[in-house]
Amino acid sequence: MRAQRFLKLTALVVTAVMVTSCSSIRNLGDKARKSHAGVKSAKTEKSAKTEKTVETVETVETNTPLPTDTLKKDVFLQQVNDNAQTTRFITSKVKFSVEVGNRQMTLTGSLKMKRDDVIRLQLMAFGFVEAGRLEFTKDYVLIVDRINKQYLKVPYAQLEFFRHSGVDFYMLQSLFWNELFQPGETRLTDRKLKKFTTDAGVDNDVIISYENDVLSYRWLTERETARIKMANVLYANHLRGNYQLNWDYEEFKANNRKMFPMTHKVQFNTPDKEVKFEMVLNYLGNDEDWEPRTTLSGKYRQMPVDEILRRFMSL
């Protein structure tokens, strides 16, 4: 049950600010009587490539040597880990889109990340007004609705499902930064890498696996470049059904001699709901001139968690 709640919250915090901001923008547009205030529908690609999941990748026979013996496995895992970014900052203008059932929303905004400190998504209305903000720090998650002057600030320590599942800021950071991770750990050392396993996948890919109680973690990697193409978190229960988070990485570009994905496609599945979130970066920057913590005036009111859950579940 805790694992299910964790996976729901993971999808929720990524989409909640989209939900609140998009509804706020529509209300703002109605009040201003502007014909283009509504959020445009995102045209999500339906290709088979986008819909693939690590769960469906089968082990196949190949003539290429597989990194299954200890030496080859360790070397390959080290190569994947060495692909991690060395820069402390990543910044970019971005295009966001979210799809929940038959609901589609698209916004522009910006992404600002500081290594081991903060991940911030800012969403814009009409291209120039900040409508919402989602901020992950090492201590809390902050969701801000600029239009309605309300916010939600939740310390990780108060979320039981985060504590018991081992999910924290560093796992989320690894997903955004396209890196391997081990729940509950801030860094992957050579000793910790030995706990991962590798198997051959289709199309000359390698599947990296890690098991943690009821949660399974998979990374689909490219054998030649040791680049992570997909991350997958799966909670499987034959009574309650499967809960799965799938994070695809596409269109890699160089960032300080390291490759970074320009397109992130996230898909979250429960037995009765599917959420898709896409983030496309316009460029790769390393801007350091910005305040890593958001401060709010007394005009903002605290938004209860139940309200966010209600908005999410009503979609």
| Helix vs. strand class | alpha+beta
Number of strands: 14
**Mean pLDDT reading:** 79
Please bin the fraction of helical residues: 10-25%
- Proportion in β-strands: 35-45%
Major β-sheet profile:
14 strands, mixed
N-to-C series of helices and strands: HHHEEEEEEHHHEEEEEEEEH
Low-confidence stretches: 2-14, 19-65
What's the tally of helices? 7
* Overall geometric form: globular
The rounded Rg comes to: 20 Å
Distance between the termini: 22 Å
Instruction: Give the neighbour order of strands across the main sheet.
Output: 7-8-9-10-11-12-13-1-2-3-4-5-6-14
Description:
It is a single chain. With 315 residues, the protein is α+β, with helices and mostly antiparallel strands. It contains 7 helices and 14 strands. The protein has helices at 2-32, 48-51, 70-82, 160-165, 169-177, 190-193, 305-313, and strands at residues 89-100, 103-114, 118-125, 129-137, 140-145, 150-155, 197-200, 205-212, 215-222, 227-235, 243-255, 258-269, 274-281, 301-302. The protein has a 14-stranded mixed sheet. A hairpin with a 2-residue loop joins strand 11 (243-255) and strand 12 (258-269). It is globular, with a radius of gyration of 20 Å.
